[in-house]
Amino acid sequence: MSTALRKARSWARRVRDRIAPKALVLMYHRIAESDSDPWGLCVSPQHFAEQLDVLSSHGPVLNLTQLATAVQSGRVPRNAVAVTFDDGYIDNLEQAAPLLERYGIPATIFVATGYIGSSREYWWDDIERLLLQPGTLPDRLDLDLGEFKRSWELGEARTLTPEQVASSRAWRIPEPYPTPRHAFFHDIWGCLYRSPQESRTTALRNLAAWAGTTKQARPGVRPMTAEELGRLDAGGVVELGAHSVTHPSLPICTPETQRLEIFQSRDRLAEITGHRIGSFAYPHGDFDSQTAGLVREAGFLGACSTRRDLVTNRSDPFRLPRAGVLDWNGEIFARHLAELRRGKPARH
Ligand SMILES: [Zn+2]
């Protein structure tokens, strides 16, 4: 091919990409106020209402299965948006659903089915409850994580005062740690993230005993029950999607475990709703080609990652990018939306 022809084709491709219809998938977790939110999972109900107000005059809003189907048929609507929630928190029913109904905006809630009806919190919330509340912990921790053991001398991380908790309210990972306890918390999170499910469950139980607490889930932080999920599904505004059973990082699981996590979460939700489940979200956004292949084999129509980008007709429906939304008011949200539309990385 001549250089001139190559240049002309590359120019034509750039023009086509610029004018091609693009959609945006937004990722939420909780609609709640929180004094401690290391992962930036919470958007306040007030801010969520303001964000929906912006979306209501933005462009067509689809649920994830509708968007995945549009990608598959090469008919992504221009300026389309899909609203998604991960995990299955109770506030999705109590706070998000009434607002979604009020604005007539559909959404997809991806549920980690092993937590349905559980009296325990999601594991990342459990360690936040154990380690980032005010109090004093023992000097030393020995944790058996199955494949490896770790020990910590806590030193200054032993104590966390109410003042330190209050002053670190706005702290979000990966900002610098406000206290040694926050560094310790993130270290424990990393160890549990890399652990197989059985080791993580045992380690969490041992961690709670070591911290001197066996408290059950905080009422506002608990996962939804099957009855509550069924009610959401019947409401018609929200569709349920699968998000594995135990919320592991799937690529580090064996192929057999990945298959169980994907297929069993599909079956549990089909049992609750009485119909087929169309979409999947990879826990932690982690997947590889084997994971994506299993999700396709399970009969889903599409799956979401957490890579920040726009969806086009050329996107792989099993690798749909998403953009996380933080606790922004309507004005800041609109600015981020415009930046995301232009393909610019949104600043926090
Ligand atoms: Zn999740």
TrEMBL record:
Residue ranges of domain NodB homology in the record: 79-348
Gene3D superfamilies with a match to the protein in the record: Glycoside hydrolase/deacetylase
Gene Ontology BP annotations: carbohydrate metabolic process
GO molecular function: hydrolase activity, acting on carbon-nitrogen (but not peptide) bonds
UniProt superkingdom: Bacteria
Compartments, record wording: Secreted
Protein name (database record): Polysaccharide deacetylase
GO CC, alphabetical: extracellular region
Keyword field: Signal
InterPro entries in the cross-refs: Glyco_hydro/deAcase_b/a-brl (IPR011330), NODB_dom (IPR002509), Polysacch_Deacetylase (IPR051398)
Transmembrane segments: none
Pfam families from the UniProt entry: Polysacc_deac_1 (PF01522)
Primary location class: secreted
